[in-house]
Structures are given as C-alpha cells and as structure tokens.
Queue: 3 jobs
Job 1
Amino acid sequence: MISFVNLDIELNRKPVFSNLNLTIQPGELVFIAGKSGSGKSTLLKTMYMEIKPKKGELIIAGYNSRTIKKREIPLLRRKLGIVFQDFRLLEDRSVYDNLAFVLKVTGTKEKLIREKVMHALESVGLSDVAGELPIRLSGGEQQRVSIARALVREPLVILADEPTGNLDPDTSIEILEYLKKINQKGIIVVIGTHDYELIRHSPSRTLLIQDRSLVEASIREGATGFRPVPA
C-alpha cells in the first residue's frame, strides 16, 4: 500500500503539492496525469524518497518518510522498480549485464542471477537480445529492457516516470500493455504521464494534478481533457 497523509512537497523551496491525502491499494494501476512541469516527476521522486516531504508522511513498501533512516533508503528502493523516460541503461554493457548488475550490487547469489535475469527478459519478450548492447535496440526495446530491469528484483511497486515520452504512439501502447501485465501480477503500478491517448487506451484510476493537489478524474470521451469524478 502507498499512503500520503497531509503531505506537503517542495522543490527548490517552492511549494509543489499541499496537503495531499491519498491511498493506493495493492494491485492498483494508477495514472498521475498533468502537463509538463506540473509536478509528476517530483511526486514520483518523493515516493522513492529522493525528495523528502516538507510536512506530513508518506508510507510506501512498509517504510515511513517520517522515520526512515538514510541508510534504509537503498533498502526501500530494492522493493521498488523505477522506469525512466530516458531509459538510463548502461550503454557499455549487454542487456543481460544491465539486469545482472542490479542483482549483483544487492548481493544476489550468482546461481540465481541468470534465472532472475532471463525470467525478467522473457516477461517483456526480449530473452533473444540478452547479449546485445542497448544501443543496437530500438527505443521501444530499450524501454522494455528498462522495465525488465525494474522487474528483476521482484518489486512491490513499479514507478514509471513518463515511460512513453520518447516513443511513437504504437510503441507507447505496447509499453503500456507490458506494464499492465506486470500489474496483473498484483504489483502496484504508478505511471506519470501527460499523454491523454495513453490513458484513453486503457482507462484506469487517474489522478489529475491540479492546484498543488491530486483530483480523481476521468478522461473525456472525444476530447483532450479530463473531468472530475463525482465524489
């Protein structure tokens, strides 16, 4: 479960969110929608505690922002999978080694690494490119590797920050379908996006960033905007 209680978030001493109260239940897929610069990335960074809330508390994967110690933040992140818009793959290492590195730094036994890496790559349909360098892959394939890397540690939560921002519409839908499959395993998936078409393709719980807060919303049929969900 993810819980925000009276949460205030600042970035460079400027208020971004005020008095957020939100609960995301296990197994939910949630879109965080908003235009560029509205605070989507800031909110996701707060979830993996790169940014500390100014006030209130955030509870995620069993850790509380009020009480978590600095040395515990890497332990929290082992329970999270993070997918970025720009992939952030190690270009001088093979696809396999990009995933294996994540496991090696957390002390996974060698005999388990291959099993976990290949299982993660199979889950995104890329077991046949394990030996390739990321630069040889298409943008969509690189993002699927990024998703596999997020998945390889068997996280409780996937946080995806504009995961289709650099991709064409058809590839964007393909990436969304992989994230949905992950969600169907019971993993919370939170997707920050400004792409209304992505949300329209697969309607799910949508939180619209509005006036430093989050509003439950649904996308309007035939329009490029949202409407509030009646309370």
Note: Residues 118 and 127 are 6 Å apart (CA to CA).
Job 2
Amino acid sequence: MPRIKICGIRTFEEARWAVEAGADALGFIFVPYSKRYIKPETAREIILRLPPWIGKVGVFAQESPKNVSQIIRGCPLDTLQLHGNEDPRLYHHLPVIKIKALSLPPVPDSASDADPTSQSFLAQFRGLPPASLHGILLDSALQGMAGGTGAPLPWHTPEFQDLLRRVKNLGYPLILAGGLSPDNVLEAIRLTQPYGVDVSSGVERDGRKNREKIQHFISRIRKEPPL
C-alpha cells in the first residue's frame, strides 16, 4: 500500500484534517510565487503542534542551499523536496531526506533531448552520492506551472510506461503526483505501482483544502487497495 502525502498545507486545521484521515506526510510549500506558499514561521507553528511519526516535507524550487538550510533549521522538517532544476548534489550536506521532482508535460516526447523522458536528462540521477537523493517524484507541468496543476499524467500510454520503467530502473523509490484525485487515484496506483502518492489540488474546493475530499482520497487507498 503506497504512502500518502497531502501537499500545500497552509493552516493547522488543514493539517489536522489530513492527520486524522490517515496521511503519512504533509507538504509545506516554500516557493514564494506558488498560490500555496506558506511562510516558514507559520509552517513552524503548525509543525510543532503535529503528533509524532508524521512526515514533514518542505517543497522548494530554485532556492539556494543556504536559504533552504536556514528554513530547515527554523522548521523541524524531515524531508526536502526539490521542485526546480536544482542539482541534488548541492544539497547533500543537509540532514534530511531528499526527493527530486521531475515535472513532465501531459504528453511526454521521448525524442526530445530537452524532455525529462530523454536518457540524457535521466542520466543526471545515476551515480549520485548516497546522501544526495532518496526518491524521485513525477509531477505534471502545464502552462508554465511545475506542480499543483490538477492535470493528470498519461499513466496508461506506452510513452509514459516507458518513462516509468526507466525512472524505476534508477533504483530510487517513486512517488506519483500530477492531477491525482479521489476519482482516479486507484487507477493511477494500479498503472504505476508507486512507493507513494502526493496530492494537492485534487483534495481542494475553491482553491482551499477540503476535509471531505481529503478523507475520500485517503479512504479510497486504505480501504480499496488496487489489485
């Protein structure tokens, strides 16, 4: 059964909803231009009130290792999610788990060297020092947005399945994001067999986290595991 992360938490109430529903981890977005941005001091207040054994993930994009380190010291995060074009090697010294996100277009083009499906792009993840990377997250990119788009990845297509095979061959746990919702998460899990799933917009209503949607998303996975 995959682990579940609810991302884009902005209030303690949202965090409580996710924890009570059975989430394994919560994501806090420290990307200033994101509509789900949270100030480090606000995230700290929420995190300090969480029960034990809940993962605390800080999401960053194009942030310097120095600034990331300062936020990690201020907020008791246990996981760092890099969502830009960062080199994971630059963050290897930070004492947290590291996840690197790959933002993919809805229809990957395996023939393009600039596309994340290309061998040259994936080659950057081979031979990394052990402390540099602990997991790879696949997300959808749409209209300049590198996450939280609500656009599902094309899990069923041969092109995506080929990419999935090559990413898994790198040997890192795979986390699936990109347009997940209570309605499609079981199919997505069945087609990709991820280590974990990551949802944000799929459990929102009118741009805010919704308690019923969070509960529905998690209960679908916990009570109806895909074959």
Note: DSSP finds seven helices and ten strands in the chain.
Job 3
Amino acid sequence: MTDVTGPTVEDTTAWWSTSITRIAPGEIDLRGYPIEQLIGKLGFVGAIWLLTKGSLPTPAQSRLLEAAMVASVDHGPQAPSIASARMAATCGVGINGAIANGVNVLGDTHGGAGQQCVELLCAIVDTARHDGRPVTEVAAETVAEHRARKAYLPGFGHRFHPRDPRRDVLLTLVREAVDTGEVAGEHLRAALAVEAALARGSRKPPMNVDGITAVVYAELGVEPELARGYFVLARSVGILAHAWEESNSGRRIKGPLPPPLLADYTGEPTRDFEG
C-alpha cells in the first residue's frame, strides 16, 4: 500500500515563496527595505524598479525610466485601449473594470511594439558583437530583410505623426546618459542605424515612441517582456484618466458610433424566411 503524505508546513509556505516582499504582523519589507523607510523618500518609479529589478535605481536609471513612462502615458481616445476603457466606463462596470478592459486590449499589435523593438535592437547588437561587424551593417541588413518580406519594423514610423513629438526629447536624454557614461549607448547606435537605413528608402519613417522607449529599456538592461509591462503600467495612467472622465459624463452605454449612425451592413439583403 502506497503511503501518501500531505504537504508539510514547509512545503506550504514555500508554495508562493518570493524574494520581493516579506510581511509579518506590523511589518512590510520590499526587497529587504522596511516600507516605512521608503515612503516619502523613494519615488513611484523607483519603487517600480526596486520591485521588478531587485535593486534601488541609480539616478540615471530612475531618470530614464520615468521619462520613458511619462512619454507612454496616453495617446488620446482614438487609441483602442482608451476607447475600450471609456466604453466600459459607461456600462456600469466600475473604474477597476474599465481599467482592466483597456489594459486587456494591449496586445502584440496595440501595445506590443515596444517589446518587439527591444528584441530587434538586442538582436542587432548581439549579432554585431558575435560577428565582429559594425552595427550599421547589421542594421542595414535587418532593414533590407524586413523590406524584402514587406514585414512591419516595430518602433519606426507612426500612423498619425509624421515625426513623433516624443522622439527627440527622449533621444536627448539617452545621449546625455551615454555622454556621462551612465549607459553604454550600443542600443541607441543600433536604433539610429536602423533609422538611417530606413531613410535611404522611398519612405523615411523615424523612430516612434515605441522605438525610443525601447532604446531606453534596452540601454537599462530591461528584458523585452518586462519592457512591455512597463508600457502597460504607464498607459494605465491614461486609461484611468479617460475612464474616470467618461464615468462622470453622465452618458450610459456609449457605443463605438454616435447615434443615430450605424455600422454599414454588408450581408444578405432582408428577405422572408420560408420555413
């Protein structure tokens, strides 16, 4: 007969073991720091870095991360995530449901370009290192390969802005961090090389916010999927603001089209049912 024993106390407490937070009656430590020592001294972006990366950020890390997140907070109600949250807010789901609705729309196509661009820049840098080739050469090959496949190049060009207004200011901050030795600048050079290669074609799409924030995250050593998480955190601010504004508008059950407009019908014409 098989002797089956249940989990021990040690097994149970180890089930959700974590290196992030220690709690005990009257005590909360974040990565080993008592929370009462952090409140009022560590900024919110610093707390994000501490919890996700496991250490206190340097001034440069905090400055660049905050700049990237501020750049990503909102892009108006035409963004699907914002529109989704606003519609949900008129349906009585509550502010948390409206925010969740907006966040859940952030997928590979809407919200995923930053992660994809971090992956792209890291691949260019890694290939250049491995092959001992100039990053400009690898970037040009990458652009040519994407163009040959007619593939989307994440982080470059914008469907609305001829030149993304967030690009230049973030680029300046990264360049300053490179000049002071706070970041290496390899991923910045890769992104600029991609941009230069694109400029030699008929279309000359500059970096957009996903591209320049990808430079920030890659220079900070942020893993690609975590970079998407940072974008989601940042965009949640805009989602919250729009959901709250809409919830106070007084309109109920607001659909995607203003009444009396209706979506075009492209199906069969109305006909009698002969059963």
Note: The chain has twelve helices and three strands.
